[in-house]
Specification:
This protein has 434 residues and is α/β, with parallel strands linked by helices. Helix content is 27%, strand content 24%. The structure holds ligand LLP.
Length: 434
């Protein structure tokens, strides 16, 4: 099938009102919301998430495909419930994520388990509830799976995660498909696993998995990886090893910087899959995370103060790297816009948080309409890898999270109390010896 270029329909975005007084997102007045809940505050648009899900589901029409949302992107139970309601499954990497997914109503038969460090206990827990399949990343893990499944007297369904040695052309820290990366195994190694497949009495090794990285803005790396996987699949079929599922991973990029980032459309991405696997008749699995939720989220934050320095002017926000790590961890760009009430002159700021590290910087030398203490700002596209990567560093409680839906909102995580933050800690009273 020829690959056509389609443009990506715009998902709901925070919009300025005609009178310039407030910004609405999914029909909710953000300044009023910030007033009521306080800041910093993660807000997610349910409509935007549903739209992304249906975009991808429509692109997959006619294929036997299941979308398994990468829970790590946003593990809030309310977000996982939205996935469950839309028949989306889950890609998990820990028993914690498994429990969240089940708790949100995602059935075990729509859950896949990825990750290089699954412990025997985690494997046992996932086998117990009967998840769809394990994406196995090493020979040692394969043997552990066999051992644990044997002990439970069940058969585990498994796919081998292929490391196709493809450069995803993304940030080094989120690149996973080069042979120097810790993920998956080479095709040579996978070939040996299949040759020995029948000796695995309690593992049904009949799937392939590939995930080459995240925030990928070009189709070429996907195409290359899938071509390699497809060639291997044909070789395996010919050698008498039936492949019942191919999991193509996640990685679809989103727009963090308007005018600069040009993400690929879901339909074009799916066409690459259709092309590479044109004669494949088994089940397809997809594991998108960011694509489904990133642009559906904003981080609402207030300016604490404007601090003129010797070389730069600092805008000190009440949000910090503990609320959104991406800029400090990957030098990631997030568009930042004030919820301003009138046009103001542009000023160049370094936009920083209160945490005591120079790395607690959201943006350097960024032009913004002039700000004053108390102004409300939106840090955009924070719905993926925002709250799910948050910490309480500097003893800052976890921010609140709110789901917006057509003019109404629901608090889906209340702001953490101090007592919750220190729960489990205690003075060293009862000294023991081992
Ligand atoms: N499948 C597997 C096996 C993965 O490891 C990941 C992400 C995904 C799917 C989902 O990838 P996505 O569709 O979201 O690109 N914290 C980083 C991103 C780390 C991604 C880790 N793995 C960031 O904020 O950019």
């Amino acid at each position: 099938m020829p690959t056509q270029t389609s443009s990506r329909p715009a998902a709901p975005q925070p919009v300025p009102q005609a009178n310039g007084t407030s910004h609405y997102f999914d029909g909710v007045d953000l300044p009023a919301l910030a007033q009521r809940i306080g800041t910093p505050l993660h807000a997610y648009s349910a409509s935007a998430i549903r739209q992304r899900i249906s975009e991808l589901q429509s692109a997959l029409a006619g294929l036997d495909a299941t979308i398994c949302f990468a829970v790590k992107a946003n593990s809030n139970l309310a977000i996982l419930q939205l996935m469950a309601q839309a028949s989306v499954g889950a890609d998990i990497v820990s028993v914690g994520e498994l429990r969240r997914a089940l708790n949100a109503g995602i059935p075990a038969e729509r859950i896949v388990f990825s990750g290089v460090g699954k412990s025997a206990d985690e494997i046992a827990g996932a086998l117990n509830v009967g998840i769809m399949r394990f994406n196995v990343e090493s020979l040692d893990e394969l043997h552990t799976l066999q051992r644990v499944a044997k002990a439970q007297d069940v058969t585990a369904r498994a796919a081998v995660r292929i490391n196709p040695d493809v450069d995803a052309q993304t940030h080094a820290k989120i690149s996973t498909g080069k042979s120097e990366n810790k993920f998956g195994v080479s095709i040579d190694e996978a070939r040996r696993w299949f040759a020995e497949r029948k000796r695995l009495g309690h593992v049904q090794l009949d799937g392939l998995h590939v995930h080459i990285g995240s925030q990928i803005l070009s189709l070429d790396p996907f195409r290359l990886a899938l071509q390699r996987v497809a060639a291997f699949w044909r070789e395996l079929e010919q050698a008498g090893h039936p492949i019942n599922s191919i999991d193509v991973g996640g990685g679809l990029g989103v727009c963090y910087r308007a005018g600069t980032d040009h993400p690929v459309a879901a339909a074009d991405y799916v066409n690459v899959i259709r092309d590479a696997l044109a004669d494949y008749r088994g089940k397809l699995l997809l594991e998108p995370g960011r694509y489904l939720v990133a642009e559906a989220g904003v981080l609402l934050t207030r300016v604490l103060r404007v601090k003129p320095g010797v070389e730069r002017t600092f805008l000190v926000l009440d949000a910090a790297m503990n609320d959104l790590q991406r800029p400090s961890l990957y030098d990631a760009w997030h568009d930042i816009v004030p919820v301003a009430d009138a046009p103001r002159p542009l000023v160049t700021y370094d936009i920083v948080g209160p945490v005591c590290e120079t790395g607690d910087t959201f943006a350097r030398a960024r032009e913004l309409p002039e700000c004053a203490a108390g102004d409300l700002l939106l840090i955009k596209a924070t719905g993926a890898y925002g709250a799910s990567m948050a910490s309480t560093y500097n003893s800052r409680p976890l921010a609140a999270e709110v789901l917006l839906n057509q003019g109404r909102y629901a608090v889906v995580r209340r702001r953490q109390h101090f007592e919750e933050m220190i729960a489990g800690e205690q003075p060293a009273r009862n000294w023991e010896t081992t």
